[in-house]
Amino acid sequence: MNREEIFEKLNVVFRDVFDDDSIVVNDNTTADDIEDWDSLEHINLIVAIEKAFGIKLAMKDIVSLKNVGEMVTVISSKIS
Amino acid sequence: MLKELEFPFDPSFLITQKKKLKRKLLEGSLPDSAESGSSSFVCKKIAVLGGVTTDDVIKILELFLLNYGIKPEFYESEYNQFYQESIFPSSELEAFNPDLIYICTSIRNISAFPSLTDSSDYVDQLLLSEYQHFEEAWSNLQKKFNCPVIQNNFDPPFFRLLGNKDATDLHGRVNFVNRLNQKFAEYAQKHDNFYICDINYIASDYGISKWANPHYWHMYKYPCAVEAIPYLSFNVANIIKSIFGKNKKGFVLDLDNTLWGGVVGDDGVNGIQIGPEESEGQAYLEFQNYLKSLKDLGIVLNINSKNDEQNAIDGLNKSSGVLKTDDFIVIKANWNSKDINFAEIATTLNLLPESLVFVDDNPVERQIVSSSIKNVSIPEITEINDYITVIDRNGYFETTTISKDDVKRNQMYKENAKRIALQSQFTDYKEFLLSLEMLAEIKSFVPLYIDRIAQLTNKSNQFNLTTHRYTASEITEISNNKKEYITLYGKLKDKFGDNGVVSVVIGQMENDTCYIRLWLMSCRVLKRDMEFAMMDALVKCCLDRGIKQIYGYYYPTAKNSMVKDFYKTMGYELVNTDPKGNTTWKLDLSKPYSNQNHVIRVED
């Protein structure tokens, strides 16, 4: 799966979790860009990502994420 | 009802789709919404006091409760403030005035465990101080709010310092947790209105190492893995719906490959698998024993099977099975479509179809029933060895109190069947009623019946004029306030048996007027003139107190159209109809009132 495909799949996850079909994420998207993305919703996002990609994210992966671009990098390293 | 919210559910689906699901539940995209709409929800205020993060626990709990027809309004304590909010004045919580409190804690809230060098006295002290911390919180809350409290017990430790000895040695965490849980259980045994959510079992059932994955505690301060939260919330929802009287009441069961292996019509009585001889028969026997135990709890059993009736009866009477024809109230073994049989069974029992659980191994039959009858619970069973688990985990019959009436319910339905048989011998209905030799006891509420009265206010839907729901503590308060309220319960027995408490009336007095806040009757005693006996009693109470007029109200719901003209029948005059169809009725007591019941003898 290349970055573009990951983005595509990730976008579906974001729309599901935040229940908002207008969301389009890119490399620079952060929690500030999505209204409902607080620390609690972040947990659900992680669970949904793990489920969608069939991966488990470690604590250090999760705490170091700064934006969606980094998220894609972590996902990419886990599935390859 | 959403299938997605019945066991077995997909936990990560619920977590990620919870917003969509909530919208679906509220918007009324429920199949029955056209009729019942959102007004059929019972609204309850629930305070969740956490020792852990409770955000998702609450959000998922909300879904399950909505699915049960309960619309919760939540109060959520700040993180780990459960003790402070219970002990110290909390103006916010007081203003919220909860109908129910849930204390969500876990093993992470135990402040100190024994260390290996502690004396046994010291360990006892430690245990007591951990326990008292909680007991203090509970008794304070019950004093302040007088409402049901649900408390998690403790989940097992995720490691065992002493290995297997951890369970037996006083210093072991496993031992310590088990002793604490035992003390919690003892408190629950001694206190009404206090319920344990057994997360010790839930965690074990889920798998302790997956449940207790420390990742979720260290990252988010969740008591368990995020994907385990739906199982926790589901259990809490089941306790809550049971407290508010929303349990299922009975089963409608298929026979072939449901209660025994094989097809009795093809294989013959000797060919069906039931009994201790070989493994398949043993598995079915275990299932029959499970159903029989539920029956002893007051769950009614009925048969809905495509069979010649004689074959069905022969199969049931096979000596190696435990369920006999006597264990069932209605047996429908014929070649009719199962949805038709199902509806007839519900009618015969005077129960709403949605209070019955349909168990059938055949997905096609399940489909037929679920598509033509709304809101019936139909567990997705696949093979005999998962029948019990799937039914059990759905919590249809979650028990919060065991009332004497529950245990006797089967007998009552049996007696009703006899009454119906007797009725057919009479052409004159009044003659029939007189032949029943009915005797009623109609009195003000007494403590003995408080639980039953509260239960009735929560589960009576059809013969219920206002559908006000009350908790046991509210009923107690009302019954103690004799200045303001007239309360009446009615018990009815006849020559076939005792129906127990079947009717409840609450009237609120203001000057010389009495307003009927609640009037309900169990459908068990429909068309027995019990309502007339109750009205006679109410009028007498009112006259004794110098009341000049009585006002009665009818608030229509999806289920209570049978009492639309109740007050008219009782001789009241209509004084108001509002746009929603709510009607107000008045009885003028300055005019002479003559008793309307002529068939029931009422005890003094």
Report on the architecture of this protein:
The complex is a heterodimer of chains A (80) and B (604). Helices cover 61% and strands 0% of the residues of chain A. Chain A is an all-alpha fold. The radius of gyration of chain A is 11 Å and the shape is globular. Chain B has 604 residues and is α/β, with parallel strands linked by helices. Chain B has three domains: 3-243, Rossmann fold (3-Layer(aba) Sandwich), CATH 3.40.50; 250-393, Rossmann fold (3-Layer(aba) Sandwich), CATH 3.40.50.1000; 438-602, Gcn5-related N-acetyltransferase (GNAT) (Aminopeptidase, 3-Layer(aba) Sandwich), CATH 3.40.630.30. Chain B is 42% helix and 18% strand. Chain B has 24 helices and 17 strands. In chain B, strands 15-16-14-13-12-11-10-17 form an eight-stranded mixed beta sheet, with helices on both faces. In chain B, helix 2 runs parallel beside helix 4, helix 13 (264-271) runs parallel beside helix 15 and helix 16 crosses helix 17.
Name its key features:
heterodimer; A: 80 residues; mainly alpha; Non-ribosomal Peptide Synthetase Peptidyl Carrier Protein, Chain A; 4 helices; 61% helix; 0% strand; globular; B: 604 residues; alpha/beta; Rossmann fold; Aminopeptidase; 3 domains; eight-stranded mixed β-sheet; five-stranded parallel β-sheet; 24 helices
